[in-house]
Write a structure and sequence with these properties.
The chain has 340 residues and is an alpha/beta fold. The chain has eleven helices and 14 strands. The protein starts with a strand and ends with a helix.
Length: 340
């Protein structure tokens, strides 16, 4: 299939490209390198040969995005490109509205111009906000009440895409969207070709590994007074390859003239301290840490109810144990560290 991947140089987008290329698809990657690195595209080019094309484009630029899609009109779009740092979105909400929502407006226009009808959208459990305890584990029917601009921008995109599908249906045209609402994604490629690397880095697993090797000062654990067994926040961690596998399954269930929302999480939660200990076991050395104040926008516990994706697809998490996530993250990190 011909698949356009936005955010192709980013953490999750690049892992998706690799898997699609490994599966024999033709992939057109788009990225502006605002938070990602050209060397990732080099790795994709090595893996994909002439089945991989790349265009550097600013998605908020409608004309440029339309021109990019014209180069290789897709059968399916996977839309990963977005800013995704919660505390940053609390401080600078407008860049989230501009970048995340603006890019999606451009992309839908561009898809219409080439009659591309199907899109899988990277949504987030942050659209649920802070569900009350009775709603956890979180099902897709949980009310969506985001508590920060990142979650709000992703929810706005969901609403926009729903309206897009409905407007086409009224005109007797097919459009279909799957919203995959991600929980916490971590880990790296099974062949260590790429891994998790943001600039600036704010995510727990890579920060733990950097701290373990002295490349980052001690990890600050944001809050140890949450109502959880060890006082630190609980998240549902999904291996990036399992997450990408959910996209492969989603291709098979893209609806006609409708949207379909599915959570991508395992149903198991792990605390910050549990992740820290797993990182330290993977790295074979302690992760220095200190407790600090809570971080804005962090709910105590976010765990998925995966029943819907289990029911509608063959997706099952296969690599999402903390051990498997942190070992793959460490292998790539250690390899990169040698070469940089
Ligand atoms: N976290 C932490 N210290 C850090 C980074 C993250 O304690 O330096 C915690 C954070 O409060 C959250 C969990 O680790 O409970 C996962 O955070 P991350 O930023 O990786 O993902 P998010 O949940 O924001 O998508």
């Amino acid at each position: 299939m011909k698949i356009t991947v936005t955010g192709a140089a980013g953490y999750i987008g690049s892992h998706a490209c690799l898997r699609l290329l490994d599966d024999g698809h033709q992939v057109h990657g788009l990225d502006n390198f605002s938070r990602s690195f050209p060397r990732t595209v080099d790795a994709l080019q090595r893996a994909g040969g002439d089945r991989f094309h790349f265009t550097q484009v600013q998605l908020t630029d409608q004309a440029a995005t339309a021109a990019a899609l014209q180069l290789h009109p897709p059968e399916i779009v996977m839309h990963f490109a977005a800013f995704a740092v919660v505390p940053e979105s609390v401080k600078f909400p407008l860049i989230y509205w501009h970048n995340n929502v603006g890019a999606t407006v451009s992309l839908l226009h561009a898809m219409d111009a080439v009659d591309a009808r199907k899109i899988i959208f990277s949504s987030t459990c942050a659209t649920y906000g802070e569900p009350n305890a009775a709603r956890i584990p979180i099902g897709e029917d949980c009310p969506q009440r985001p508590t920060h601009a990142y979650g709000e921008s992703k929810l706005a995109c969901e609403h926009m895409m729903k309206a897009w599908v409905q407007s086409h249906a009224l005109a007797d045209r097919d459009r279909g969207v799957v919203f995959l609402r991600y929980f916490n994604v971590a880990g790296g490629d099974y062949l260590d070709r790429i891994g998790e690397d943001h600039d600036p880095e704010t995510h727990l697993v890579p920060i733990c590994l950097r701290a373990a090797t002295g490349r980052h000062p001690e990890l600050v654990v944001y809050g140890n007074d949450y109502p959880t067994p060890d006082g630190t926040c609980i998240r549902d961690y999904v291996h990036v390859e399992d997450l990408v596998a959910a996209h492969i399954e989603a291709i098979k269930v893209i609806p006609r003239r409708e949207t379909l929302a599915m959570n991508v999480g395992t149903g198991n939660g792990a605390s910050v301290l549990e992740v820290l200990h797993a990182c330290s076991a993977a790295a074979g050395r302690p992760v220095p840490f200190a407790f600090g104040p809570r971080r804005d926008g962090d709910p105590p516990r976010l765990v998925s109810n995966p029943e819907k994706i289990f029911r509608l697809t063959n997706w099952r998490p296969a690599r999402s144990s903390l051990e498997s996530i942190t070992q793959s993250a460490w292998r790539w990190f250690a390899k990169e560290k040698k070469s940089t």
